[in-house]
């Protein structure tokens, strides 16, 4: 059974003032997050990502549908029972949410006290957690004395204090610079592989998904418009929203303005070929061109790595005898996805 399971979940926020309309934040979501995976949820602002995650730890209650977390159906549970469920869930936030008037040590102590961890065990556990996130020497510091990346590492240590089965990360790297983002993502990857903790990660950045997620769900207007293994979504996006997100990292082909500039510099017929891991070797493709004396220039595109697998889109300008160019394009079409660039 999946660690987190949503079936037909809807969340409607009723208006607080007269004249306002209800807001459908989650609109019929089915979702399975399997034990041990890093599951990314991507979407623009207002898509419903935060609400979805808040439903998992029961900070919000579903209007319709069922939610199962770690084998327990949480819809309909009382507050006492929910507290137990929440002990199995850690959470980290964009703005870290540390207690600024407490030291790093006390920030991590707090959840241990709440969970009733015996006093004798607390100190050792804090040292273990700080060592895991590489901040053993910062125990006596206050959050204000730490960098953003260090604060988030404290946030991670605190979230892991009670050995949760699931870690929820809500835009956990959005306030960090690119280098620090990579450090925090590397730490989250260790949380997943070394501690076996399942992670649900919300983001609006596709780069975060590419770097660490195994699976991804794309949200739009409260719905999941597409979900699946990260490589599949990157290499063959189906929904418009997915295509837009993927294109922030990998362009399907040159954008109109880029194309204009390319046309000024290159002559010939433009085609974009989609290269996918396991497809025909590039040399075989280029051999089709050479055999027909078609000259080609690589004018746009690149090769990407997602989950250790490669794919990319390359735009070529082809020149030569029109009949030979036509024959070469026909031959390429039998081997790869090819799009004419107009
Ligand atoms: N407590 C609430 N009361 C009323 N409406 C809410 C509440 N929380 C969220 N919403 C609405 O639900 C919709 C989804 O919001 P949510 O915060 O889940 O989106 P999001 O994808 O996380 O956006 P962001 O990336 O900006 O945080 C939005 O229209 C939002 O205004």
Structural write-up:
- Keywords: Amino-acid transport, ATP-binding, Cell membrane, Membrane, Nucleotide-binding, Translocase, Transport.
- GO terms for molecular function: ATP binding.
- InterPro entries: AAA+_ATPase (IPR003593), ABC_transporter-like_ATP-bd (IPR003439), ABC_transporter-like_CS (IPR017871), ACT-like_dom_sf (IPR045865), MetN_ABC (IPR041701), MetN_ABC_transporter-like (IPR050086), NIL_domain (IPR018449), P-loop_NTPase (IPR027417).
- This protein is of the alpha/beta class and 342 residues long.
- It folds into two domains: 244 residues, 3-Layer(aba) Sandwich (Rossmann fold); 85 residues, ACT domain (Alpha-Beta Plaits, 2-Layer Sandwich), CATH 3.30.70.260.
- The strands form three sheets. It has a six-stranded mixed β-sheet, sandwiched between helices.
- Strand 9 and strand 10 form a beta hairpin.
- It contains twelve helices and 14 strands.
- The site of adenosine-5'-triphosphate (ATP) has 11 residues, from strand 2 and helix 1.
The gist of it:
Residues 4-246 form the ABC transporter domain. The chain is of the alpha/beta class.
Write the layout of secondary structure elements.
Blueprint: E1 4-13, E2 23-33, E3 38-43, H1 49-56, E4 64-69, E5 72-73, H2 79-87, E6 89-93, H3 104-114, H4 119-132, H5 148-160, E7 166-170, H6 178-195, E8 198-203, H7 206-212, E9 215-220, E10 223-229, H8 230-235, H9 240-247, H10 256-265, E11 269-276, H11 282-291, E12 295-306, E13 309-319, H12 322-333, E14 337-340
Parallel strand pairs: 3-8, 3-9, 6-7, 7-8
Antiparallel strand pairs: 1-2, 1-4, 4-5, 9-10, 11-13, 11-14, 12-13
Bound molecules: adenosine-5'-triphosphate.
Adenosine-5'-triphosphate binds next to β2 and α1.
